[in-house]
Amino acid sequence: MDHLLRGHAPVSDQGWSLLDTEARDRLVAALGARKLVDFAGPVGWQHSATNLGRTEPILDTSMGSIAARRRRVLPLTEVRAAFTVSRDDLLDHDRGAVDTDLRSLHDAAMRLALAENIAVFHGWSAAGIVGITEASPHPEIARVEDFNDYPQRVAKAVETLLTGGISGPYGLAVGPAHYTAIIETAEHGGYPLFDHVRHILGGPIVWAPGVRGGVVLSLRGGDFLFESGQDLSVGYDHHDADTVHLYIEETFSFRVATPEAAVALAAP
Asked: Do 77 and 50 contact (CB within 8 A), yes or no?
């Protein structure tokens, strides 16, 4: 953890405890992808690549009559979201204040969660990450005008997975707007839509900022693989007379082992 330079920051032990706790609470709520895919690690800051278990030929005649192959790996991606905290606010916290202004930290946590969720569900080509919806060979389930028909979409997605031999239970990742609609909607007769959808899935409905539409995926394990190098940590950048400049950072890779184990629900 030395690279985080926390020992150089004008932040007390109580201040670090506050920052770590607040960051963790915000991130746990928003990191929807981690609730649905296989998580491995953390294996440390120095871990640089995920072993893909595959090779590619080296077509080079300069070494004579030998055969050579290069091991293929997926490099981990470093992601950082910066934020600031007032030095006066940190000192007031040490004195016992309970209303520390951490809005900048909250914003950084949400930006990082969005980046991770988007990379997992929709991909990040610049980082070499193919997302779940990009990899899925199944056509998207069309959107519906009436949210009371939402269970039919989920049931169709589950049927698609079952027909392809993909067992459950299943989970559903949706963005904030769809999650709110599912929570608030009652079907004809007053039965909560949330309970109906969860019954169809046999698994959770997950609030995942950054998801476009929805994604139904198998939770049987082994299909979607997230590897954490350094897990989410708060680090120190620099400070001036008034402000401490900090960041939340992580390294990770993501790969889809079974593309057919997920179905996308089309976004509006």
From this structure: no
Please report the pLDDT score of residue 187 as a whole number.
Answer: 66
Rg (CA), the chain: 22
DSSP letters, the chain, are -GGG-GGGSS--HHHHHHHHHHHHHHHHHH--GGGTSEEE----TT--EEEEEEEEE----TT-S---EEEEEEE-EEEEEEEEEEHHHHHHHHHT-S----HHHHHHHHHHHHHHHHHHHH-BGGGTBPPHHHH--SPPBPP-SSGGGHHHHHHHHHHHHHHTT--S-EEEEE-HHHHHHHHH-B-TTS-BHHHHHHHHHSS-EEE-TT--SEEEEE-SSSSEEEEESSPSEEEEEEE-SSEEEEEEEEEEEEEES-GGGEEEEPP-
pTM for the model: 0.91
Residue 190 has pLDDT above 70, yes or no: no
Average of pLDDT values for 146-175?
Answer: 92
Q: Which percentage of the chain shows pLDDT scores above 90? A: 82
